[in-house]
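Sequence in, structure out. Go.
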Amino acid sequence: MAGLTTDQVKAIASTKGRRSARGVLADCLSWELNEDDVKQIIQLDYLYDTIMFAIEKGFAWSQVCLVVQLSMELLKETVDQPITEAIKILKSKCCHYNGKISGRNIQLYTDYFFDTFMKHFKLYQYVFTREREKWNTQLNLTVELPRDPLPCSSGKQQHLWEYDQKWTEIEQKETEKKTELAQKKTVVSEENDKTIKEAYREVEQLEETADKETIAKTVAAFASAHMKSAIDNLRLSIEEAEYDLDFKLEKTSLARPQELGPPPRYNTKSPIRGNSPVGRKSANSKAKGRDKSSKGKK
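Output:
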């Protein structure tokens, strides 16, 4: 395994972040970095930590390179050996590098090596001597093919399409609101029917000898139940009319393209004046007036 040069060590040390420095170290070693390869990542971290330790302890740049080379050799030669043999290999390597690396630095590195690598020797040994079990996840995905495009003749201009989208959105909200009001009406109607039935049952259960006060309370409760039902129905009808007018106003206010012609006109749900009692009375008065005038002419 090729060693590192002082320039490469300096480049690694000046790189911010362990992940980025790991990539620089892999390039210096001519390795193709693979984040999924656990052995490679552990080995790169092992060497990177050694570099940073040596720099922090003030090793000369040339001796930092030698310490990295020593760490590479120790990892390669000890992981498949028992721990007693690994210690002998460490001692032999230190003697070999003595003179190339100062005695002080050899002692510092030996202490560091025992506190890190040797402390977790069995774990390193397990990782580097056994193949990792591979876990492959398989998923079945259903791919829906796009539908065949419609002919260009059936297409719409963008402003017409946008208008249709807004119109559809309003109608969708209107449908949802109508459904909500219908459900609300059903609930209120069921509650009022239940109250009226209970009040009617109390009326039926009145005894002939009941006093005037009891009869008055029962009749009042019966009338109150009917009154509440009528008020609720009126309130819901008003609420429905308000929402109906709001949606019609929103549709009418929507900017309509000229190609679609004039906007729709809506009739309100209020009764026609001619069909109301006041309207009929006015019409009858006018008819009587015409009859009188015709008789006078005769």
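Check: The chain is about 70% helix and 0% strand. Residues 271-283, 292-298 have pLDDT under 50 and may be disordered.
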